[in-house]
Design a protein that fits this description.
By secondary structure, the chain is an alpha+beta fold. 29% of the residues lie in helices and 29% in strands. The protein is built from three helices and four strands, in the order αβαββαβ. Strands 1-2-4-3 form a four-stranded antiparallel barrel. The longest helix is centred in the first third of the chain and has 18 residues. The protein is globular, with a radius of gyration of 18 Å. It starts with a helix and ends with a strand. Keywords: Cell wall, Disulfide bond, Secreted, Signal. This is Hydrophobin. Belongs to the fungal hydrophobin family.
Length: 108
């Protein structure tokens, strides 16, 4: 009986490990706090968003939010943003402005 239990436990652990690509969970979705100017804003399921995220080692599987691509922080009120003005979760030092998650449009 003990050997059957150990086989079942091992099978469950292997299945869980295989379900997480590269063993990394998706980034946490937190309330957006950073005003950004992004060249485009797309759904997280978009191929371009997935490709940029993969370059950074992020897995967006199951993350159902809008994603900003090629973003820079807005630091001055009235900044002339040639793209889409949004507020996002965008840690600059981790993602280098390539991607921002959970983007919400800023309406004035």
């Amino acid at each position: 009986m003990f050997s059957k239990l150990s086989v079942v436990v091992a099978s469950v652990l292997i299945t869980l490990a295989a379900a997480m690509p590269n063993g990394t969970p998706p980034p946490p979705v937190t309330p957006p706090t950073s005003n950004q100017c992004c060249s485009s804003v797309v759904p997280s399921s978009n191929a371009a968003a997935s490709a940029v995220a993969a370059l950074l080692g992020l897995d967006l599987t199951g993350v159902l939010v809008d994603v900003g691509l090629s973003c820079s922080p807005i630091t001055v009120i009235g900044n002339n943003c040639g793209g889409t003005t949004v507020t996002c979760d965008a840690p600059e030092k981790e993602w280098g402005g390539l991607i921002a998650i959970n983007c919400i449009p800023i309406t004035l």
